[in-house]
Write a structure and sequence with these properties.
Number of helices: 17
Number of strands: 24
CATH topology of the domain at 398-558: At1g16640 B3 domain
CATH superfamily of the domain at 398-558: DNA-binding pseudobarrel domain
Strand order of the largest sheet: 11-12-17-18-14-15-16-13
Strand content: 15-25%
Shape: globular
Distance between the termini: 40 Å
């Protein structure tokens, strides 16, 4: 089975109640897809009843009938669900009615454990206070009107009134007479030079001591003498001086035209444009020019095209790495760097040092190559460790699947890309083959290269992909294995989605998500169809046709039914040694689908393609190349495009 990061739920009640509780938990888990592991996810009983009424659970479409069933099923699993009941006023009743309805809410978490109730009172401070102390309450009207039993005496303090006195009038101060103003010297002219005036000696004046006079309090009839205002001393006129201002500097001319520099052969950049536009157009050129200097400077360290100083980058010890590995084991799969920082160290994106701490974590994990492996993208750093459960469980081994897809490394053998663009997002519509359906894989061909991101690091071997299925309210974890020297690339881990919802020949739709490694996976729905479809019976070790009901759109040529491929019924698989021989696989496809004629078996490429993809993968261009330019057993029909003959070796053809 594939890796879905689902915890083990401790459900109670009957088997039917456990199944219903598991469905509800899965629904609530999808509702809180972006929540933290311990953050409560809540839904009311009314919301759940309306949802399952729309789904016609057990044939019931009345929420009132489904509510007791859901309440009983979830209440039987208190370890997983927390049941809360609150009283709310019913607005539909009359104003004088005091009727109240209870609102039932169920809460759970992504960890599969019920959250701690918010109403629990775990404080013990009140138990350590004086037990006989009475609380202070507000005084009632009766207590306020009751006369006091012991009236308190009132004391008064008689203080003498202070005598008021009139303030003494200010004594006028006699100022000496002002000196006559010295006449101003006439301003010098151009014909007369300016001569300095002779200095006049000033005799030293002895200090004047004012006698102290007694202060006499005037009577009411006395009038204080008037204060005589002193005449103002006229200011001497200053000589007029003509000041010549310095000449104004000419403004520096600003270049309004383009300032172009050459950053590469034939590539010029105008530096007079806004900096954001310059970096958007030529940021890669500047980065490539700066990278060699940073690489040679031993003070800087690099991870994913980000550079930091080594001295200020945080470090982690063996205990920290052990905690990270245990955290991955608890999650049963790869985890992101943001999840590790939040759950293990309590870091938040709003912290001032968040980006520096995040860089330090990723760089230190990158240095521990034996214990951790990077499987993320440019906008989602994800890490895994050896020994964790494998993502996906295909029929063939991973090495065999990589060998089967080796032909994808030849550009001439790969089909054109099927990726289109809708509303600004990439969309890939792909017909599912029997080999892909049985192993839960997709080829890393031109369509996958356009859809999925390339490796971020040079030594990166795989990439973790998140597929959200909106039709099922579920998220699948898949793995993209990049091609190596002797093996092709492929995407694995989707067998559960294929087996539960699709058939060979169905149309699979993958859409780009908000991140480069996040996608939505769905299928084009249709009315329910009944058909006998080819399956492999593991017990009998034979291919058989089984009746099946499906509700997905299919392409007629890709659906393996007895109407077109009756010879496949009861056939055995090829031996592993024969399965690796492409000529023998194609020859067997002719025998199952072709029509006998004097020239051998005759078949069209569209009929051969789905049958050849039972044992091993083929692209249409690869199959066409083998039929037209491969073994001489296969000959094209010159009169019909994509029509070929196969003549067995005993009839004169060479292998």
């Amino acid at each position: 089975m594939m890796q879905t990061n689902m915890p083990k739920l401790e459900l109670g009640g009957t088997k039917e109640e456990q199944e219903l509780a598991g469905q509800v938990w899965n629904l609530m888990r999808m509702r809180g897809f972006s929540y933290a592991v311990t953050r409560p996810i809540s839904l009311t009983l009314e919301q759940l009843a309306e949802y399952y009424a729309g789904q016609k659970y057990q044939g019931l479409d009345n929420p009132a009938e489904l509510a007791p069933l859901i309440d009983k099923a979830l209440s039987a699993s208190p370890v997983v669900f927390l049941r809360e009941e609150t009283e709310t006023d019913d607005a539909s009743e009359a104003e004088d009615s005091a009727a109240a309805n209870s609102l039932i809410t169920f809460k759970t978490t992504k960890s599969g454990k019920a959250p701690v109730s918010e109403n629990l009172d775990q404080h013990s401070f009140k138990t350590r206070l004086f037990q006989d102390a009475k609380p202070v309450t507000q005084e009632t009207d009766e207590e306020a009107a009751r006369p006091a039993e012991h009236p308190q005496p009132t004391h008064s303090l008689n203080l003498p009134v202070a005598a008021t006195q009139q303030p003494a009038p200010a004594t006028p101060v006699q100022q000496p007479a002002a000196r006559p103003a010295t006449p101003a010297q006439p301003a010098p002219t151009a014909a007369q030079p300016v001569r300095p005036a002779p200095a006049t000696p000033v005799p030293a004046q002895p200090p004047v001591v004012q006698p102290v006079r007694p202060v006499v309090q005037p009577t009411a009839a006395q009038t204080p003498p008037p204060v005589v205002a002193q005449p103002a001393r006229p200011a001497a006129s200053a000589p007029s001086i003509q000041v010549t201002p310095p000449p104004a500097l000419a403004p520096t001319p600003v270049s309004s035209g383009p300032i172009e520099i050459t950053v590469a052969d034939g590539v010029t950049v105008d530096l007079n444009r806004p900096s954001a536009d310059v970096l958007a157009d030529a940021g890669d050129y500047f980065a490539s020019a700066l990278a060699p200097a940073l690489e040679e400077d031993f003070r800087f360290i690099n991870f994913a095209n980000s550079y930091y100083l080594e001295d200020i980058t945080g470090r982690y010890n063996k205990g920290d790495f052990r905690r990270i590995r245990e955290y991955m084991q608890d999650n049963e799969g790869p985890v992101s760097d943001t999840a590790m920082l939040a759950d293990l160290w309590g870091k938040r994106t709003t912290d001032a040092d968040y980006e520096a701490t995040r860089f330090a974590l990723n760089f230190r994990l990158f240095r521990e190559k034996k214990d951790f492996e990077f499987v993320g993208a440019a906008d989602d750093f994800v890490w895994t460790a050896p020994g964790l459960p494998q993502i996906g469980n295909p029929r063939h081994k991973a090495t065999e699947i990589g060998t089967d897809y080796k032909f994808l490394e030849d550009p001439q053998l790969v089909d054109p890309s099927e990726v289109t663009e809708e509303d600004g997002y990439k969309v890939w519509r792909h017909m599912l083959t029997f080999y892909e359906y049985e192993n839960g894989v997709l080829p890393y061909d031109n369509s996958s290269r356009d859809m999925f991101p390339a490796p971020l690091l040079e030594e990166q071997k795989s990439l973790v992909l998140r597929f959200e299925a909106p039709q099922l309210y579920f998220t699948y974890t898949a793995e993209l294995r990049y091609p190596t020297g002797s093996r092709g690339g492929w995407v694995g881990g989707l067998e559960q989605f294929f087996e539960e919802n699709l058939v060979p020949g169905a149309v699979l739709v993958i859409r780009q998500g908000d991140k480069s490694n996040h996608f939505t996976i769905e299928y084009e729905q249709s009315d329910e169809q009944n058909a006998n479809v080819l399956f492999y019976d593991e017990r009998r070790q034979k291919f058989v046709f089984r009746p099946i009901v499906f509700a997905c759109e299919v392409i007629g040529e890709g659906l393996l039914t007895p109407d077109r491929y009756a010879k496949l019924n009861g056939q055995k698989r090829l031996e592993d040694s024969d399965r690796k021989k492409t000529d023998q696989v194609v020859a067997q496809s002719f025998e199952y689908t072709g029509q006998k004629s004097s020239l051998g078996f005759y078949a069209l490429l569209d009929d051969l393609y789905p049958v050849a993809n039972i044992e091993r993968p083929f692209s249409r261009n690869y199959l066409r190349q083998l039929l037209a330019h491969g073994n001489s057993m296969f000959q094209p029909d010159e009169s019909t495009p994509d029509a070929f003959y196969y003549k067995p070796p005993q009839s004169g053809f060479r292998r």
